[in-house]
Specification:
Number of domains of chain A: 2
CATH architecture of the largest domain in chain A: 3-Layer(aba) Sandwich
Helix content of chain A: 25-40%
CATH class of chain B: Mainly Alpha
Number of helices of chain A: 10
Largest sheet of chain A: 5 strands, parallel
Distance between the termini of chain A: 58 Å
Shape of chain B: globular
Distance between the termini of chain B: 37 Å
Number of strands of chain A: 11
Helix content of chain B: 40-55%
Order of helices and strands of chain B: EEEHHHHHEEHHHHEEEEEHHHEEEHHHH
Oligomer: heterotrimer
CATH superfamily of chain B: Cytochrome-c3 Hydrogenase, chain B
Strand order of the largest sheet of chain A: 2-1-3-5-9
Number of helices of chain B: 16
Radius of gyration of chain A: 21 Å
Order of helices and strands of chain A: EHHEHEEHEHEEEEHHHHEEH
Strand content of chain A: 5-15%
Structural class of chain B: alpha+beta
Chains: A alpha/beta (291), B alpha+beta (421), C mainly alpha (202)
Chain lengths: 291, 421, 202
């Protein structure tokens, strides 16, 4: 399958992330880069500007900016030309999907179809064929996997923001090694420890952020939350919100509830869970038990 | 006979344009242009200072971790008295060094070899890149773009299990280096001071350096022969050198940034002069044997520059190995530093893959009032004038038609995204 | 079939009667001076039979506090579900509390004199705030909404909770001791205003 990767305002993190895909060599046998910002490609960028044929999937990376010119042509012109040519469009990363961090650095910046959660109409004719792969950066398994599913023409169920369900139906909370501290409402957390949950004080957005960070694991070995860093909510339209390391609270009650959980249900369960001071969760995991 | 040609430079982090001014058969002047910028410093203003830990790695997809470490150092510098355990410092040094290593492999295999028309199996770059990413992730959660270094230490805790994973991969990379880059014992290579001895060995490094010699390019790409290094640790020493004359003391007050017309980058000078930063500069400050020998023969040319960068790999491998061995896991990973002062200033300096990276923050009323990032590529790629050209400009000027201008340019490793921020 | 339904019904009624009677006695005499035989006697049932419903005096007391919490919780929930301004919501909650103190004085008495005074009775089975969960949850939701709407100051939960509930409890206590010169209801406006002023965004 022939791929064309077009970067707008990007950090190249998505392109580098893909190189970490463990099956990259085998995976790549099924794909041809017409253009990729790092990897050997069939065409040069000036040739892409001149015009090529045969694009099957257009990969859009980076925040779009009104009037952006990469070399000679307006980026929008390239997007329209190859967007029409491609069977599918994949917005890779949060910048290309929702605008992301760089959208905050100037006016006229957005993702391909969204500015935050506002659905834009500038490329509406592409909406039906667009797949959104937010993440800052995207996990390599998500990008490689989605492209393979598209290539095989297998069904690819999407959510309302067009994120593939196979990767985004989960929350970052799923699979976190700190889950029990959340379930039993142990709200004490200190950095530099294996124990505790960052939901209560330290801004963790894992319970309401879609993605597979703790299911697939990063680089196959770990995740931010396992390493004691809060989930920053980087796959969601409102990334990055202000005060990423603090949990917004209303009189001590977290302002945002776990995904789909009514506040009354959460508070009711929290009240019950909190009532039991469960000994195990108050002790260091690595404590010598004298056995 | 004067001719102006605009070329797009691709397969770098982002894109750059070079406008070559030819006079007869040689480059008379060159302007390096960066067309897009993202405004990271502006995005940071008004935000909670800790947000910088999440946002700054996103300056760059290839050296973002250096930006994280520079950020945490700048924030920690805002405190009067802050404790960070030796363990936390060592682990940060490790992940930082792993990224530098990864960048060196990527640049050598993805950028340099193709320009020398040398082929190497893709796995030679993918394997070390992937392994080093895993090593960072084991300690920091993920790569690219983690935020595990926080004021007071690191966000999580490390057990012998993670260190074991790091050790095993470290061995694998060491082996990879000896099998692919140069077939020689690491210790022996670090001590080597003869170009011929290096060239006699098998491996991609001797192949590349031999190709440069065969094609008669070894003296191309010479610049001002002025070097600067701001960061120091157990591996690198700060200072500046003009030719081989060293000066250890540097003062950030002499740092000047100025806008460049027609480009989104800003030039940076020290006491009014441009300096080269990066592996060649570090090697010149340390007087490492092989690079010094190359410099003695060929000056600050692309030969010396490429050799210096690859020669950092074994030194980094030895450095990280000793770091891993010296970590005392019983120390705290994080010591609560208390709230960040509401009015403060801080500086964070890091030796990143491409050279010295400097972050400066001013906090007011508990928010970021001003944030300034000076990247290595600003030193190396910032434009000057015909009378006072920047480092890469000077390296390009004088090249003849048919000379490898792109290789000269990319011997600095062009990170456009870092240059414009 | 119908006889089973009737039996279940009858049992539920009996259970309800036990709770009501025990509530009155506990509220009036305190937990320790009230005995199971006394409660049984008041209803006209055997002590043995009462134990079929509640296996101990502690468990009976815990059931009572749960029911009080559920009752108050459901009343406050109606306020929370309304679109009223926070000022009016506070007035409604104060009214509910005082109205309950007047119409069902034993409920508030039990809460103040038994639940809060004899914590050891509730240690096992009513850990933390489990048995008053429904009531506390609604107060939390009231606060949360108020802060989210920008009407209430964002502060520590217990500072706000203590101010609100401690105030109401204190007034009911003074009323019970017949110290208040006026009817409890006549204080609703002033008290609501004070609470609002103390909790609102400055």
């Amino acid at each position: 399958m022939r791929l064309l990767w077009l970067s707008a305002l990007a950090c190249n993190g998505n392109a580098h992330s893909l190189l970490n895909y463990p099956g990259f060599q085998e995976w790549q046998e099924d794909f041809h880069w017409l253009y990729h910002p790092l990897l050997p490609s069939r065409y040069t960028f000036p040739e892409i500007e001149k015009g090529i044929e045969g694009v099957e999937v257009l990969i859009v990376d980076g925040t779009l900016e009104e009037g952006l010119i990469k070399n000679r042509l307006p980026y929008r012109e390239l997007l329209l030309r190859y967007g029409d040519q491609a069977e599918r469009i994949v917005t890779v990363g949060t910048c290309a999907t929702f605008g992301g961090i760089f959208a905050q650095g100037g006016g006229g910046r957005s993702g391909l179809h969204f500015e935050g959660d506002e659905h834009l109409k500038g490329y509406e004719r592409f909406w039906e064929k667009t797949v959104s792969l937010p993440g800052c950066p995207v996990q390599p398994e998500v990008l490689a996997g989605t492209l393979s599913i598209i290539r095989r023409r297998d069904p690819l169920p999407l959510d309302t923001l067009h994120r593939p369900k196979y990767f985004y139906a989960y929350t970052i909370h799923d699979g976190c090694t700190r889950n029990e501290y959340f379930e039993y409402k142990i709200d004490e957390h200190h950095f530099g420890t294996l124990e505790g949950c960052m939901f209560y004080d330290h801004g963790c957005q894992g319970t309401f952020t879609h993605g597979s960070c703790n299911k697939i694991l990063w680089n196959g070995v770990n995740s931010k939350t396992r390493a004691g860093t809060p989930c920053l909510g980087c796959t969601e339209p409102d990334f990055p919100r202000e005060g990423l390391w603090r949990t917004p609270k209303h009189m001590g009650i977290p302002a945002r509830m776990p995904l789909g959980v009514p506040r009354r249900a959460y508070l009711g369960l929290a009240g019950i869970a909190k009532a039991f001071r469960i000994e195990r969760f108050t002790r260091p995991l690595m404590e010598d038990e004298g056995g | 006979m004067a001719e102006v040609r605009l070329e797009l430079i691709e397969k770098i982090e982002g894109e750059a344009q070079v406008r070559y001014h030819y006079e007869k058969d040689h480059i008379d002047f060159a302007e390096i242009l960066f067309l897009t910028g993202r405004g990271i410093e502006r995005i940071l203003e008004g935000r909670d200072p800790w947000d910088a830990l999440a946002i700054n790695p996103r300056v760059c997809g290839i050296c973002g971790h250096a930006h994280l470490i520079a950020t945490v150092r700048a924030l920690e510098d805002c405190y009067d008295d802050l404790q960070v355990s030796a363990k936390a410092k060592q682990i940060r040094e490790l992940t930082l060094a792993f990224e530098v290593l990864q960048n060196h492999f990527k640049w050598f295999y993805l950028t340099i070899l193709p320009l020398l028309e040398l082929k190497a199996p893709m796995e030679r770059v993918l394997e070390p890149s992937r392994l080093l990413g895993e090593m960072i992730a084991l300690l920091a959660g993920q790569y690219p773009h983690n935020s595990y270094a926080i004021p007071g230490g690191i966000s999580g805790e490390i057990t012998p299990v993670e260190l074991l994973g790091v050790r095993e991969r470290h061995q694998r990379i060491r082996k990879h280096f000896q099998e692919s880059v140069i077939h020689v014992d690491l210790e022996q290579f670090v001590r080597c001071d003869r170009i011929e001895t290096m060239l006699e060995r098998e491996g991609d490094l001797p192949r590349a350096m031999q190709r440069i010699l065969d094609w008669g390019w070894e003296r191309l790409g010479r610049s001002h022969d002025r070097f600067i290094v701001f960061g120091s640790n157990d591996l690198f020493e700060a200072g500046k050198s003009i030719g081989t004359r060293l000066r250890r003391h540097l003062d950030l007050r002499y740092l000047q940034e100025s806008p460049i017309q027609g480009s989104r980058a800003r030039r940076v000078l020290y006491r009014g002069r441009s300096y080269e930063t990066g592996p060649l500069a570090r090697a010149m400050l340390l007087k490492t044997p092989l690079t010094r020998e190359a410099h003695r023969r060929y000056g600050d040319s692309l030969f010396s520059r490429i050799l210096a960068r690859v020669c950092e790999i074994p030194r980094l491998l030895r450095y990280t190995e000793s770091l891993i061995g010296s970590i005392d896991l019983s120390e705290p990973a994080w010591v609560d530093p208390g709230p960040l002062p509401v009015e403060a200033e801080g500086v964070g300096i890091v030796e990143a893959a491409r050279g010295s990276l400097i972050h400066q923050v001013r906090v007011g009323e508990g928010k970021i009032q001003k944030y300034r990032i000076v990247t290595p590529t600003q030193w190396n790629l910032g434009n000057g004038s015909r009378e006072d050209p920047g480092v890469a400009q000077a390296a390009l000027i004088g090249l003849r038609r048919g000379d490898p201008a792109e290789l000269v340019f990319k011997s600095f490793d062009v990170c456009s995204v870092c240059t414009t921020k | 079939m119908s006889s089973t339904t009737e039996r279940v019904d009858r049992k539920a009624k009996k259970r309800e009667k036990i709770v009501r009677t025990a509530l009155k006695l506990f509220a009036k005499q305190g937990f320790y001076t009230t005995t199971i035989p006394e409660i049984a006697g008041k209803i006209g049932m055997s002590v043995g039979n009462l134990y079929n419903y509640f296996s101990s005096k502690e468990i009976l007391a815990q059931e009572i506090i749960r029911e009080i919490s559920a009752y108050l919780g459901s009343r406050i929930r109606e306020v929370n579900d309304s679109d009223l301004h926070v000022r009016e919501k506070i007035r409604r909650i104060v009214s509910i509390y005082f109205e309950t103190a007047r119409n069902e004085p034993e409920m508030i008495d039990f809460f103040l004199r038994v639940y809060l005074s004899n914590r050891e009775v509730f240690h096992e089975g009513c850990e933390g705030m489990i048995c008053v969960n429904e009531f506390v949850t609604e107060i939390m939701i009231f606060f949360d909404d108020g802060v989210a709407n920008g009407e209430l100051k964002n502060q520590d939960f217990f500072s706000a909770f203590g101010l609100f509930m401690g105030y109401l409890g204190g007034m009911v206590f003074l009323n019970g001791e017949r110290i208040l010169p006026r009817r409890l209801e006549s204080y609703i406006d002033d008290i609501s205003e004070n609470i609002y002023n103390a909790l609102k965004v400055p």
